[in-house]
Amino acid sequence: MLKSLSAPKKIKTNSYYNTKWFSNLLYMFNKKLAIELLKRGVDEADPYKAINSSFSIQNNNLSIKDHSINLGKISKISLISVGKASVPMAQAVSGRLEIDKGLILATEGSSDPDLDSIEFYKGSHPIPSKKNLEASKHILDLCEKIGKDEIVLLLISGGGSALLSYPAKDIPLSDLQKITDMLLNSSAGIRDINKVRKHISQLKGGKLAKVISPGKSISLILSDVVGDDLEAIASGPTTPDPTTYTMAKSSLLEQDLWHSSPKSIKNLILQGERGYREETVKEDLNNCLNIIIGNNRTAVEGVEKACVERGHDSLIISTQIEGEAKDVGYVHAAISKEIQDFGSPVAPPVIVLSGGELIVSGSSVSNKLGGPNREFVLGAATKIRNKKNVVIAAIDTDGIDGKGKSGAVATGNTVNLINKSPSYYFKKHNTQECFDNINSSIDLGETGTNVNDLRIMLIGE
What we know:
- The protein has 461 residues and is of the alpha/beta class.
- It folds into two domains: 3-45 and 297-459, MOFRL domain (glycerate kinase, domain 1, 3-Layer(aba) Sandwich), CATH 3.40.1480.10; 70-295, Glycerate kinase, MOFRL-like N-terminal domain (Rossmann fold).
- The chain contains 16 helices and 15 strands.
- The radius of gyration is 23 Å and the shape is globular.
C-alpha cells in the first residue's frame, strides 16, 4: 500500500507551520519516490541489458530470442549500430561475438567505445548535419561490399531516422534540414513524418536491405515507436514500406507544408508520383530478419516491478498513448481525480503508469527549452490544482525531453507556486523555465537508451 501519500494520523498538523512543514516533507518524499521509480523504468530498458538478455552463442549457433543462426555457414560478420543507444548495444555485441568490421553512428554526447575493427562517428539529432551524411555514406559503402555468405548485424535504437540520413540525389543538405525542421514543428505523428523521410532517402524504406543483398541482415531493435511498427522505426531501413510518394505528399498537404516545402523535395515527390523515381521497397525482404529486443512496455513494466517490490499497488493504463501533450495531461489528471474521488477504476492509494509518445504542436525544437513530457506535467498540474496527495511526473527515457532536461514533477500546489500563468508557458513552449523556477525539473542526463515517454501518477486517499 502507498501509505506515504496519506498523512500519518499520529502527527498533529493543526497549526499552520506544522501543516506547511508536513506538506513540504510529504511532497519531497513522493517526488523522490516518483523519480526513483522512473529511473527504474529507464534501467529496465538499458540497451546493454536488452542485448544480453536476448542474445546467446552455443555450439557455434547464434540465438536471438526465438531465432537461431548457424555461424559455421557465415564467412564474415559486419556490425552497424545507429541511434541513441548505439554505443552500449555495440559494446554488448562485441563482447559476445567476433566482428570483422563495423561502424557506430551515435549522437553528439556519446563517448568513443574504442572497439577493435569498429569505426566511431557522431551525428546531430534531431536535425541531420553534414556529419550524419558523411557517416551514412560510410555505412552505404560498407553495405555495398557485403557478400552472399556474410551477415550485417544492424543495431537500431531511437534517433535512427535522424542519424541515418543520406538524401536522394538532387536534394541538398539544407533542404533536408529545412523539411525535417518543418515536420518536427508540425502536429504530424512519427508515421507521417517518416512517410516523407523514406521517400527522400537512399537508405530508408527498405533501401538499405537492397544494398546489403545478396548478403543477409539481422536487425536488433530497441523500439522508440508506439506499437513497435517495424516500418516506422528508424524509417525502416531493412523493412518493406507500404507507403507511397502520394502518401508522402498527402502528409505534407495535411500539415499545410506542401507549398512551403523546398523545391527539390516537391520535385522529387512529383517525379515519384509519375513513376520517374524508384519507390521504396514493397516486396518481402527475405534477406532480412528484424527482432524487437526492448520497447516502451519494457520500461513501464520495470516501474511496475519496482512498485511490487516496495509493496505499492499499481496499474498500467496503456503503453500506447499518443497525442498533444497538454491534452493528454488533462486526461491523466481526470483519471487521478476519478480514482481519488470515486475509487474508479481502482481504489487509492495506487501508482498509475502509462507510456507512449506525445507531441507539442507549433514548437521549435531548435530554440526552446521544453518538451512534451513537461507540457504533459504542466497540463496535468492545471487540472489537479489544490488536490492533495496527488503527484504526477513524466520523463523522456532518453534523458532529453525535447530540448533541455528530462522531465518534471507536479502536485496540486504546482500552479500556485509558478510565477506566470500556465498559458504563458504553453504559448512560449519553455516549460523548463517553469519547473526550474520551483525546483521541480527532473534531470537524468543522457541515459543511452530511448523507448519513448514514461509517466507516473502517485494517487493517495
